[in-house]
Structure formats: structure tokens, C-alpha cells
Design brief:
The chain is mostly helical and 214 residues long. The protein is built from eleven helices and four strands. The relative contact order is 0.08.
Length: 214
């Protein structure tokens, strides 16, 4: 993702700024723009302070009316937050509500399979609830071994078993390539778990299956 952000002047002229340099001294161009936009002398800008690029950018955006979040975005964020609160508890930390949907089999893997739209695209079959923090953590390599198995119920494990079995039949070279990755890579640990048979659901006794269906 690009780290450049725009400052748009009233005449439409656009200046791109590097947000990774926010703590460095303001550039001559930024000072000149700020003098013009705020209609102040350079002495007033520099009097007693060492203006940083971040502060210069913040003041430019404020003066130009570009430091706000559009009303439509605020409403959409509020709606999404309310929807998350009604979701089930996080499978990873147990936090009540405020969860998002995590595809436990990566969508890019499923799209490699035949009959994707008909057989594999269902979010209901391929998602578990995770709060935002846990969702971010499970995609992070800093977590170490990145296994999803213990968070899945039997139905979800069966879906994973079928999907990865199909991948092994239709794209065996891709499966091997993924499996060669480090355990901190989500997809790699996923395929290794399948190879180790961790998604196989043991057949339960008839009495247990009957009771589960009641």
C-alpha cells in the first residue's frame, strides 16, 4: 500500500506527501504552501517551533477542509459496528459480540477449485467469528504457529477437509508449494494440518449422532 497522501489546493493542484516522514522537518514546499493557505508570514510559522512535516500536513488539511471523515462514511462505520455487536462470540478469545467473519479456508485457494460459485463460495460454510484484534492476529506471522484447527467445529472441519482434498486432486503442485512455507504463514499451516489429518472428523457412535440431531 502506498504511503503517499494528497494535499489538494482550491484550484485542483495536488501535492503528494510521504506520511513516513511526518517526524522530519517541514520541507520548503510545505512551508510555502502553509504560508499561502493560512495567509501568514514565515516568521509566524517558525516562531519558537521546529515545524515537522506531520504538523505542516495536519495544518494544511485543516485549513483546506480536508481533515474530516465524510458523513456517509461515519454512518457506514456506525452501521458496521452495530452489526458486529450482534455477532457471536470470538472463537479465539471469547469476546462477546463485535466479531467479524474470518474465512478459515482462504478465498484465493477456493477460487482455484472447480465449481467455486456452486460448491465453495458460501460464507456461511467457510466463516467463523473473530473480533478485529484476533482477526488481525491470526493473519500475522508474529503469532508463531498459525493453526486454525482448534477453533473449528465438526461441520467446519469437514468443509476444510473436503476443500483441501479437492485442492490436492486438482492442483497437487500448488498444494505442495503452499505446504513448503513456514508455520507462521496461515495458508502453509492450514495445508500441513490437512496433510496431518487434523481436519478428519472421527465417526461418532449412533447414539451420539442421534442426540446431536435432537
Amino acid at each position: 500500500m502506498s504511503r503517499a497522501r494528497p494535499i489538494i489546493l482550491p484550484d485542483g493542484e495536488t501535492f503528494w506527501v510521504d506520511t513516513k516522514r511526518n517526524n522530519e522537518r517541514a520541507t520548503e514546499e510545505q512551508l510555502e504552501l502553509l504560508m499561502t493557505v493560512e495567509a501568514v508570514e514565515l516568521d509566524d510559522l517558525l516562531d519558537g517551533i521546529e515545524l515537522s512535516q506531520g504538523e505542516a500536513i495536519r495544518r494544511l488539511r485543516k485549513a483546506l477542509g480536508q481533515d474530516f471523515i465524510p458523513e456517509a462514511v461515519l454512518k457506514r462505520r456506525a452501521q458496521m459496528r452495530n452489526e458486529r455487536k450482534a455477532q457471536p462470540t470470538c472463537r479465539m478469545c471469547g469476546r462477546a459480540g463485535d466479531s467479524t467473519k474470518h474465512h478459515f479456508i482462504n478465498k484465493w485457494i477456493l477460487r482455484e477449485l472447480s465449481s467455486y460459485a456452486r460448491r465453495w463460495s458460501s460464507r456461511q460454510r467457510n466463516c467463523i467469528p473473530l473480533c478485529i484484534e484476533c482477526h488481525r492476529m491470526i493473519h500475522s506471522r508474529s503469532r508463531g504457529v498459525n493453526s486454525i484447527v482448534e477453533m473449528l467445529n465438526d461441520t467446519e472441519k469437514q468443509f476444510a477437509e473436503e476443500a483441501l482434498h479437492t485442492l490436492s486432486e486438482e492442483h497437487p503442485k500448488l498444494l505442495i508449494l503452499i505446504a513448503r512455507g513456514d508455520d507462521s504463514v496461515y495458508e502453509s499451516r492450514l495445508v500441513k494440518d490437512w496433510i496431518e489429518g487434523r481436519f478428519v472428523v472421527e465417526e461418532r457412535p449412533v447414539t451420539e449422532r442421534v442426540l446431536a440431531a435432537l
